[in-house]
Amino acid sequence: DRILGIVKQLNPTAKVLQSNYCNVDIKEVIGTGTFEFEKAATGMGWLQSLHDLAVRDINGQKKIAPTPETEEYGISSFVYRARRPFHPRRLYGLIHDKFVIMEGVVEDEGDGEEAVDEDDSENAGDEDKSQDAEDVEDENGASGDGSAHSDSDSWSEVSVEDAESSEDFSKSIDPKDAAKNKANDPIFKGLLRSKGFVWLATRPGLHGEWSQAGTMLTLQGGGPWFCVLDHAQWPENEATIKSIMSDFQEPWGDRRQEIVFIGEKLDEAGLRKVFDECLLSDAELKKWERAMRLKNPDTMHDKLAQLFEDGFEDWPELVHDEHDGHNHATIKA
């Protein structure tokens, strides 16, 4: 029953065949003709968990909770959501020793054609860079009379706490060690599956795709957030647009953390706490917001990289092109 409960939570529509000594009719597993892509894409347990959590009366209080049948086997799920970015260093510090992290690697292209494009873009962006340089100088504390500001909200580099962190961004942990660490961790040991979107402070244009099963965690660049796309690049279906807009929240659009966690005897409070600790603090968020207001994208990304150490693999590059008076964002691998 326990195994069946786990399978049902991970894939509610899966047909489960029980057998002794692998005695299964081959016709039950080969050439069944039962696969439907759309059904498979929309029937995954993690995706249904976004919608199946219901308001239930628990101990006299109204709470969002999983359906009762999953509780019978100790299997539960919840959705972690947040509206501020993760600090890459702290997120890595949380996950690096409990999971085997797999990342997509972006290959470098030839330098010749790119050099011409960069030269053109530099000329086009000189005015913005000049203004941004003045903004950065002002924020660094230089006033009109040459004196320096000492307020705590001025620009700063990576915090001392992060700079002195003993973890590096090595991805070479032994899978056996990761499995042992996860199994012995009181917060992560019950986690079976998680999937969703992440928002890193240093990568404001693209969402990260998070997909974990057991000790294997894939974290790689996904598509652009809809808030950075011209509306001409949005889907045309009204229902889809309505769904997209439901994820928007001022001032940063649809940027968000949204991860579904599924597991056995999950420590929901513990997981929420450790992921909350990876979010930017109020002071860090102020610096991040100032960097985001810089007009030139290159200057903005450089400043974010100075503020928040990020050693994850590169993601596909988000390129903004001007066509017919519209700003079109495209992914450059």
Description:
By secondary structure, this protein is α+β, with helices and mostly antiparallel strands. It has two domains: 1-73, no CATH class; 81-142 and 154-333, no CATH class. Helix content is 35%, strand content 20%. The chain contains 13 helices and ten strands. The protein has helices spanning 2-10, 37-42, 45-52, 68-71, 88-95, 111-124, 126-139, 160-163, 175-184, 238-245, 268-276, 282-292, 297-307, and strands at 54-58, 61-65, 75-82, 100-102, 191-198, 206-213, 216-224, 257-264, 317-323, 326-332. The strands form three sheets. The chain has a six-stranded mixed β-sheet with strand order 3-8-5-6-7-4, with helices on both faces. It has a two-stranded antiparallel ribbon with strand order 1-2. A two-stranded antiparallel ribbon has the order 9-10. It starts with a helix and ends with a strand. Mean pLDDT is 77; it is low at 112-116, 141-153 and 156-164.
